Structure to design on (259 residues):
């Protein structure tokens, strides 16, 4: 996909990875950028607007745990820009001591945002098609015991997004889906891990966690935006230590049919 002239919605655009992705997107001469986030970062928003006078950049307040916030933000954005070409679901929280919130933000929020965006993008409903990018994690590719709840939520994101990418749905809606699985990336999400693990007792996993190599958010972001440009429906992409690797997800079960 050539991003020039496109309308983009970015959820979590003021976050560590989000800010770097926005900067990459703005280099592509996109037509508009709606940032859905919990709190406005007025200083960075003003800087982006100043430096990119040809892109309509604006903020919509969204608490992703509130379905009504999501619906209002998409409605107002559609009224302002007409249609969306790309949606990035990039909000997130890693804190296994907050079980419900972990599921609400990381999984339910992504599902609600995706299904709401589809109402506007689905060609069968008068939309123009496009691409929805859901940010999962390497913890959404395999169990990450230190953060079992986060890992469960992210595995849900991976499976949900792969299901949405089904070719039958794609033929109907014209909306493609990709799953992004970053490895450890140096952002605030990884702060204060000692107080966010699934259990309170010491395990060697915490010491290991603190030794894992972290990629720079700008490297993750440039690979993420390249993945948007490639726009391969159904791709599951691991973005780890500055590289992109497409993950082959095998079918472990096949239905057996009645004769
Ligand atoms: N940093 C990593 O190592 C890493 C690794 C794998 C996946 N990820 C995923 O990448 C995405 C971005 O993470 P990050 O590292 O930039 O973290 P971050 O904490 O810097 O950013 C998280 C973003 O989510 C937003 N958010 C949190 N709660 C919200 C809510 N209730 N409603 C709306 N927005 C909310 C925050 O405001 C922020 O913009 C997340 O989905 C995260 O799970 C991060």
């Amino acid at each position: 996909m050539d991003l020039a002239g496109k309308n983009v919605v970015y959820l979590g655009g003021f976050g560590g990875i989000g800010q770097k992705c926005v900067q990459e997107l703005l280099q592509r001469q996109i037509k508009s950028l709606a940032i859905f986030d919990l709190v406005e970062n007025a200083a960075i928003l003003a800087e982006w607007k100043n430096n990119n006078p040809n892109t309509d950049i604006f903020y919509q307040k969204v608490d992703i745990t509130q379905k009504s916030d999501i619906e209002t933000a998409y409605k107002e954005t559609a009224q302002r820009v007409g249609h969306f070409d790309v949606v990035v679901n990039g909000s997130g929280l890693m804190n296994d001591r907050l079980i419900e919130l972990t599921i609400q933000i990381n999984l339910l929020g992504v599902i609600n945002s995706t299904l709401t965006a589809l109402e506007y993008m689905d060609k069968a409903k008068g939309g123009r098609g496009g691409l929805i990018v859901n940010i999962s994690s390497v913890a959404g590719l395999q169990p990450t015991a230190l953060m079992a709840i986060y890992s469960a939520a992210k595995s849900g994101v991976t499976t949900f997004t792969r299901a949405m990418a089904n070719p039958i749905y794609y033929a109907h809606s014209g909306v493609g889906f990709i799953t992004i699985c970053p490895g450890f990336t140096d952002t605030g999400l990884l702060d204060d891990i000692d107080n966010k693990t699934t259990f309170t007792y010491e395990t060697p996993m915490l010491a290991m966690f603190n030794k894992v190599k972290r990629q720079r958010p700008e490297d993750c972001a440039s690979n993420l935006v390249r993945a948007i440009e490639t726009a391969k429906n159904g791709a599951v992409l691991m973005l780890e230590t500055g590289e992109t690797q497409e993950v082959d997800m095998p079918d472990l079960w096949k239905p057996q049919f009645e004769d």
In short: Residues 12, 14-18, 37-38, 62-65, 90-93, 105, 135, 137, 182, 184-185, 187-190 surround nicotinamide-adenine-dinucleotide (CB under 6 Å). The chain has one domain: 7-246. The two ends are 44 Å apart (CA to CA).
